[in-house]
Every structure is written in structure tokens, then in C-alpha cells.
Amino acid sequence: xxxxxxxxxxxxxxxxxxxxxxxxxxxxxxxxxxxxxxxxxxxxxxxxxxxxxxxxxxxxxxxxxxxxxxxxxxxxxxxxxxxxxxxxxxxxxxxxxxxxxxxxxxxxxxxxxxxxxxxxxxxxxxxxxxxxxxxxxxxxxxxxxxxxxxxxxxxxxxxxxxxxxxxxxxxxxxxxxxxxxxxxxxxxxxxxxxxxxxxxxxxxxxxxxxxxxxxxxxx
Length: 219
Hints:
alpha+beta; 7-stranded antiparallel sheet
């Protein structure tokens, strides 16, 4: 694909995995193509509800529960024309790219083996396995700690060895806030940065007037 000289470089969205203890970057997963749409749902954490005191009607318990849905495309069709120049694509199609994304929802084989050994040795309490801190990056003002809640893969085309060469991946993400991680955690700090940036952006939005709503004042 050709581009016009001087055309702006399009940034990619993606996922960054951090070590939960040291915050060191473990892996960067760049989406091949940015999604055309990104759906976000914010569920308000209100105090008011059945049986709640009326004095609590305007109070909220914390940040909303925010979920994100997006569809990503992975396509190796063009690369298949020159497989000798694209080593893994020629051998395995897009299996490696799919495996990276699917690994987000798996514990590692080493973790499973270790827990099995602990159980065999009679360990009374085996802690759930800890995953890397997952960050969803969608521009410099949206770097969010998230948990992958669901992952759906639709493979649409295959090479002669039945390796997938085109697929659509649907990702469901839940934003982790300070309620989930605490203020001292790296993820909690990133959430607070995200919230502060949201507040700063809100100040740039042009305000309306009561007259624009057909009001001369509040009745």
C-alpha cells in the first residue's frame, strides 16, 4: 500500500504486559489493524437503591465499572505471497499472533505444573496464579489497567496446511480501578492518571448556556 509523502503516521492500539511486582515491560502486543469501533460501557456505582436512605441519593461509592469491547483483524494474505520473507507466517500462518492473544487468558504451563506439585506435596493453601498486569493502550491519553473478560476468535481463511491466515478477534476488557488494585499498585496509579486526564479533557469541552436549553433560569 502506498502513502502520500508527508502523511501522518497512524499510531497503533495494543496491549502491554507488565510484571506485577517490578512493573517491567514483559511484552508489547500491537494490533495489526486498529478497530473501526470501540464500545465502552460505564456502570455507575451508586449508593442509592432499594431501601437506601434518601440522603444518599446523590452519593456514589467509587469509579464506575467500565467495560470495553473491540474487534481486531489479523490478516497474513499479503505476506503469504512471499513466505520466504515472512518466516513464521510461511510456517504457521497467524497462529503465533493468535497464540499471543490467547495467552492473555491462560495461566502458564509452568504455573500449572508448580501448583500441581504443591498440591501433590500436601500444601494446604495454594494461592490462585497471578497474571501479568495488562494495560490496554488506545492513544497516549488512554493507558488503562484491564482484565480480559472474554476472547472470541473467528478464523476465516486457511493455507494448504490448515493454518489460519485471516481471523477476527473480539476482546472484552474490564478496566481495573483503585477499588480493584489500591492506590499503591502500579495499575492503581495508571488508573488515577487516566482519571486525571479525563478531568483535564473535560475542561476543554465548550460549555452550554441555560438560554440554549430554552431556560432563563432554574425554576
